[in-house]
Amino acid sequence: MKHILIINQHGENRGDEAAMRAMLAGFREELGDVRFTLLYQFKDRSLRLSFREQVKDLPIVLPPLDYMRALLYSATNLVRIDLKSVLSSAMRPIIDAYRSADLVVSAPGGPYFGDIYINHEIVHWWYVWLAIRFNKPLFLYAPSAGPFESKLMNPIRRRLYKKFDVLVTREEISQKFLQDLLGEQTKVHVTADSAIQQSFQPLERSRYFRGERATLADKFLVAVSLNNYRYPGAPNPGQLREEYNRSMLGLIEHLARRKDCHFLLVPQLYGAAHSDAPFLLEIGAKLSPDVSFEVVEPETDSDTQRRLFAMADLHVASRYHPAIFGHMGYTPGICIYYEHKALGFMKQLGLERFAFDIREPRLDRLCQAADELLEQREQIIAHLGQRVPALQKRARRTTDLAVELLKSREAARRVSGLQK
């Protein structure tokens, strides 16, 4: 049975969860019996993910002493001394997973590589370095990448990115960042976000809205996922956050005036450490009393969230994966992006006119976009019907490339064994 080790998985985020689920399903479909080890980062240590596949999950949110001992292990490993005894009981199974892995995959969610993640980036490069030390085939599974402006980190990034056997990004903007960093001669494949691989049927409204809530099924449903964005690096983050909040409230109120709406406010972050449900409740409390809304249970998993977005008539997303959830469910929507990955996705759909920078959330433009979506909703659904299947095929190409790497490395080992 093949063993795939997955590193750099982002935790407590339904979007990264969706990307992971789709990747695992893709590998299972291509390889049949396969087992996975998932190194995951959850600050709320009570949380665990459950999968249909055979997955052993190992946490990497560990005490500092564990990492100090791991650094000592790494230093001795450089001179070919295996001091496994110095490792903590939590770190030993991680090292064992590297030893037995047939393929090491850097996860399709948050990439952790680039200036946005610089305060903890080096830890995630260490997990890449371990794959190199154990001579394992190394695959970048279509995350975003960059931007890369740090003169301190860029030499490390160049050296370690070039150790990947195959580099894949999920959109063209990331490909450009990588090629600018590594040189245009470096092969960087572009596919699409892992979560795009899967399709989900809409939830039945009559099953979701029951009892006293049954009348809500007849309303115009709008799925909304808002980002409590902190505007890192901005000179006036408080002012920008106020402007963004006003624009989001104004957009919801505008839609409520145009249609008999019910708004589903969908949390993406969950758990004790990161939940954004309180922020959504705060937004909801500021709406006019006659605006109908609810905050979806934070425990709702990514599969169910995707069915909720598909059930809606329209969506508003200032987070990346909810924009994918909506459009892959053929639900037209507005994307307010905070990183280039979301703009890249909207360009892949040919709907970038409905994408807006979170740093300039002008209410007049958002309302104009909402009006266009309402007036041309059926045409946009038809447009998605043309674009989505091709984009799904493109996303599945990532798994094909990973399987090709795995099989080519196996073939090389067999040839080497015969020559010996």
What does this structure look like?
There is one protein chain. The protein is an alpha/beta fold and 420 residues long. The chain has 2 domains: 2-196 and 391-419, Rossmann fold (3-Layer(aba) Sandwich), CATH 3.40.50; 201-375, Rossmann fold (3-Layer(aba) Sandwich), CATH 3.40.50. Helices cover 46% and strands 15% of the residues. It has 14 helices and 13 strands. Strands 3-2-1-4-5-6-7 form a 7-stranded parallel sheet, sandwiched between helices. Strands 10-9-8-11-12-13 form a 6-stranded parallel sheet, sandwiched between helices. α1 packs across α14 (377-419), α8 (237-258) runs parallel beside α13 and α10 crosses α11 (320-328). 41% of the residues are buried. The model has no long low-confidence stretch (mean pLDDT 95).
Strand content: 15-25%
Query: CATH superfamily of the largest domain, called what?
Result: Glycogen Phosphorylase B
Cα end-to-end separation: 25 Å
Question: How many strands, which pairing sense, and closed or not: the largest β-sheet?
Answer: 7 strands, parallel
Query: Count of DSSP E strands?
Result: 13
Poorly predicted runs are none
Coarse morphology: globular
Going by CATH, the architecture of the largest domain would be 3-Layer(aba) Sandwich
H/E series, N to C? EHEEHHEHEHEHEHEHEHEHEHEHEHH
Total of DSSP H or I helical runs spanning 4+ residues: 14
Give me the Rg, rounded.
22 Å
| Mean pLDDT value | 95
Output the strand order for the largest sheet.
3-2-1-4-5-6-7
